[in-house]
Design a protein that fits this description.
By secondary structure, this protein is an alpha/beta fold. The protein has 24 helices and 16 strands. The chain has helices at 39-63, 67-84, 86-97, 103-119, 124-128, 130-156, 170-178, 194-202, 213-216, 238-259, 283-291, 303-307, 315-328, 366-371, 373-386, 402-421, 439-443, 445-448, 459-467, 485-500, 518-523, 533-545, 548-560, 564-575; strands spanning 3-6, 8-11, 14-21, 161-165, 183-186, 206-208, 222-226, 231-234, 275-280, 297-301, 334-337, 392-396, 431-436, 454-457, 505-507, 528-531. The chain has an eight-stranded mixed beta sheet. An eight-stranded parallel barrel has the order 9-10-11-12-13-14-15-16, surrounded by five helices. Strand 4, helix 7 and strand 5 form a beta-alpha-beta unit. Helix 1 (39-63) packs antiparallel against helix 2 (67-84), helix 4 runs antiparallel to helix 6 (130-156) and helix 23 (548-560) packs antiparallel against helix 24 (564-575). It is globular and about 80 Å long. The chain binds phosphoenolpyruvate and magnesium ion.
Length: 587
């Protein structure tokens, strides 16, 4: 029987395929008591999971070197000691053998017991160490889960299937796409998560926050997903399949229409040149950026080099990646962002401690780089070495203060000096810029702009931090509003401050590639955009239809608006400055 489910569109495109369910990664605690005949097998399962968790920790320890070995290594050692604890292990075995608990329930009992001991402690530091228990037990639970779902995971990587899961890590998406998975449905998540950004790069249609999906879809159900409108049709009828075929034809048509814009200048009707750069995460993005006539790479997210692998890339490997990127762009400028690990980009790297209470407000981006300068030094050296192959600049993420930029510049100068002394060819001057994505940086920008060579506005984070709305929390999706008056004011101020100081300013958040905001950003004075290359031609089409001077004339009125109605009304006025058929206004 046909039925539909809804979520939020996160990576557009439609996909028709068989559903493959992956059970939630939250630990499923099986409370059913064991039968006598099951005890030995369950003990063996538990022991395998414990061994796996120990082996994982040992492998993680092995991977650490240099500065990392000290700080992170201590944590790992503590976790290994807990896992090796005789009492803990004997208690678990007893719970299974005598108490007839299943492994997952035994782990939960032991966790609760140990945590209550820690919670009763007077010392605040010791009390906080209950997190170590959670971390260790969580690792064993995950190992248990992996064992039971290993078969499902194998199946999930089959051609023609659509993955239905609660979450998916950015590092898991590439292998899924490579194995022929056609699309992804998640019960949680947001279109601004890094998994969604990567899905768009991989052209993998994705629907997120489809809360009912795991409860209502069965393995092997035929499903049709619409990653633009966030729709899932289970057991699609003939008219749905016809719609899907129609969409396929439209894609071809639209592709043909937009292809005509490949070699066209990006220029408003009144003749102002606008620069459209591409964001890149994967090598395929570079080829696409060239193919659609991007002005350069405005944001190269280097963390994706780190996420899709088990150990960290060294200087030589990073150098080759950056060199190929620069060569691939054939003389067009490339902006390489230093590592922005942390928050939802922590996954398999083993670099980021995942027990921070508020990872988005934690050791992320430049904060991680400055705490582990050896990491940053390796990266800066690799980038500097690539600088002799073509124009590149360096962008620093998550900056909140002038001091952070001064520290990075100091390290950059030292790296440049060392490389020159060692006889390397590097460019005479490398521009160093800051992402403006923390409100503090936007507000304090007048005081620090002179020390920056350029800035790039990261609206994905600027909106989240300005509005105190987690960009990955689907419960708050309606509060994540790039049109909030506070956001518009910060955008306008930032663009104006940089322009007055004669510093290039671009915008590289998802807003840049969304044609609903093109008129708005032009009205605020923006002339440099950076977006996923798949969106560039649409934005070019939109830009070329606008009259910029007319738009600029409406900016003040827009910034005076204090309500959403007022802002939407203002946006309607902006749309009238376009010669194109009016687009759909943001809702
Ligand atoms: C941003 O925050 O807008 C941005 C471009 O960076 P990221 O999405 O990688 O955090
Ligand atoms: Mg960001």
């Amino acid at each position: 029987m046909r039925f539909t489910l809804t979520g939020n569109g996160a990576a557009r495109g439609m996909a028709l395929g068989r559903a493959r369910l992956e059970q939630p990664s939250r630990y499923l605690i099986d409370e059913r008591p064991l039968a006598a005949g099951e005890i030995d097998a369950e003990l063996a399962r538990l022991n395998r999971a414990l061994m796996l968790a120990r082996a994982e920790l040992a492998a993680l320890r092995e991977k650490l070197h240099g500065m990392l070995a000290g700080e992170v290594g201590d944590f790992i050692d503590v976790h290994s000691l807990i896992l090796a604890d005789r009492e803990l292990n004997a208690g678990l075995a007893d719970l299974v053998r005598v108490g007839r608990y299943r492994a997952s329930a035994a782990l939960k009992m032991q966790r609760d017991r140990l945590v209550s001991v820690f919670e009763a402690m007077d010392d605040a530091y010791l009390r906080s160490r209950k997190e170590d228990i959670d971390h260790v037990i969580g690792r064993v639970q995950a190992a248990l889960m992996r064992e039971s779902s290993a078969e499902e995971r194998k199946l999930a990587a089959r051609v023609g299937e659509i993955l239905v899961s609660d979450t998916v890590a950015p590092s898991e998406l590439v292998p899924l796409a490579e194995h022929g998975v056609l699309g992804v449905v998640l019960t949680s998540g947001s279109p601004l998560s890094h998994s969604a950004i990567l899905a768009r790069s991989l052209r993998l249609p994705m629907v997120v926050a489809a809360h009912e999906a795991l409860a209502h879809i069965q393995d092997d159900d035929l499903i049709l997903i619409d990653g633009e409108h966030g729709e899932i049709i289970v057991h699609p009828a003939a008219q749905d399949i016809a719609r899907y075929r129609g969409w396929q034809r439209d894609v071809v048509q639209r592709g043909k229409r937009l292809a005509l814009l490949r070699d066209v200048d990006t220029r408003t009707r009144d003749g102002v040149q606008i620069h459209l750069h591409a964001n890149a995460e994967l090598p395929a993005d570079i080829a696409q950026a060239r193919a659609c006539g991007a002005a350069g790479i405005g944001l190269y997210r280097t963390e994706f080099l780190f996420l899709q692998r088990k150990e960290m890339p060294g200087e030589e490997e990073q150098f080759l990646a950056y060199r190929d990127l620069v060569l691939g762009m054939g003389g067009l400028p490339v902006t390489i962002r230093t590592l922005d690990l942390g928050a939802d980009k922590a996954d398999s790297s083993g670099l980021v401690l995942d027990d921070e209470d508020n990872p988005a407000l934690g050791v992320r981006g430049v904060r991680l780089s400055l705490r582990r300068p050896q990491l940053l030094i390796i990266q800066l050296r690799a980038i500097l070495r690539a600088s002799s192959y073509g124009p590149l600049r360096i962008l620093v993420p998550m900056v909140a203060s002038a001091e952070e930029m001064a520290s990075v510049r100091h390290l950059l100068n030292e790296c440049a000096r060392d490389l020159r002394t060692a006889g390397y060819e590097i460019a005479d001057h490398i521009e160093l810029g800051a992402m403006i994505e923390v409100p503090a940086a936007a507000i304090a920008l007048p005081g620090m702009i002179k020390k920056l060579d350029f800035i790039a506005i990261g609206t994905n984070d600027l909106v989240q931090y300005t509005l105190a709305v987690d960009r990955n929390n689907d419960q708050l999706a309606n509060l994540y509003d790039p049109l909030h008056p506070a956001v518009l004011k910060l955008l306008a101020q930032t663009i104006a401050t940089a322009t007055r100081a004669g510093r290039p300013v671009s915008l590289c958040g998802e807003m840049a590639g969304d044609t609903r905001y093109t008129g708005l950003l032009l009205a605020l004075g923006l002339t440099d955009f950076s977006m996923h290359p798949g969106l560039l031609l649409e934005v070019r089409e939109a830009v070329n239809a606008f009259d910029r001077s007319e738009l600029l004339g409406h900016a003040k009125m827009l910034l005076r608006a204090v309500t959403r109605e007022g802002i939407l009304h203002g946006l309607g006025r902006l749309q009238s400055c376009s010669a194109a058929v009016p687009g759909v206004a943001p809702t």
